[in-house]
Amino acid sequence: MTVTAFAALHRAGEPLLLPCAWDHASALALAGQGFHAVGTTSLGVAAAAGLPDGASATRDETLRLALTLGSAPFLLSVDAEDGFSDDPDEVGEFARELAAVGAVGINLEDALGPADRHAAKIAAVRAAAPGLFVNARTDTYWSGDGDPAETVRRLEVYREAGADGVFVPGLTDPARIAALAAHFDVPLNVLYSPAGPTLAHLADLGVRRVSLGSLLYRRALGAALEAATGIRAGRSPDGPTPTYDEVRTPDGP
Questions:
Q1: Which CATH class for the 3-248 domain?
Q2: Mean pLDDT, each 10-residue run in order, the chain (253 residues)
Q3: Do residues 85 and 19 lie in contact, with contact meaning Cβ atoms separated by under 8 Å?
Q4: Which of 155, 188, 205, 222 is 20 to 30 Å from 168 by CA-CA measure?
Q5: Model pTM greater than 0.85?
Q6: What are the residue boundaries of the structural domains of the chain, listed by start?
């Protein structure tokens, strides 16, 4: 399994659906369901460690998870927040460490900071880990005002810096998605939203990667709460439940 194989999964008309894991068990369970590539969710990693997400606080935890998963039988892409530093060289070194343990992709978010600084991080990653698939994320829709022109401006800067793909979480408008997909010569990644277009519709719009982000982690928490409160109320939990041995086995369910 190579970086080239990961890039090849970003197909027009058949986008890569990237589920995001938060630990070894969740990653192996997803791979066991036929997902050839698995990402990580920064929220899940941070929450499991009792640390804030998006605050550059989980560098060690993220690298530790990558070390655990990098040799597993699937392609691993790591959510590295903003690279855990404003220093491009430090971000490049982190990317090199990820590649060394077997990761094939990295997701870097700009957090609406200066576009030139984010571009410098992307360039540093390309230099330090040339084979790593760099997914450059802008937060113009996630935490900004969703300005289409600013979105394109930022993504063009990141593409020029060497990004292999561009990511716009929070964007759900079909017309704007289609316009972005047509504008760029690299794969467009969007974040799946239960209230947004379906996977099939996103494929028709030209999207080549659909990430699940923290959705699975939050759904898992919801299922745990539903089971616990249901048992307290005298109800038996329903839905699929992996057995103890399935989770205990290193190869996963």
A1: alpha beta
A2: 85 97 96 97 97 97 97 96 98 98 98 98 98 97 97 98 98 98 98 97 98 98 97 95 84 51
A3: no
A4: 222
A5: yes
A6: 3-248
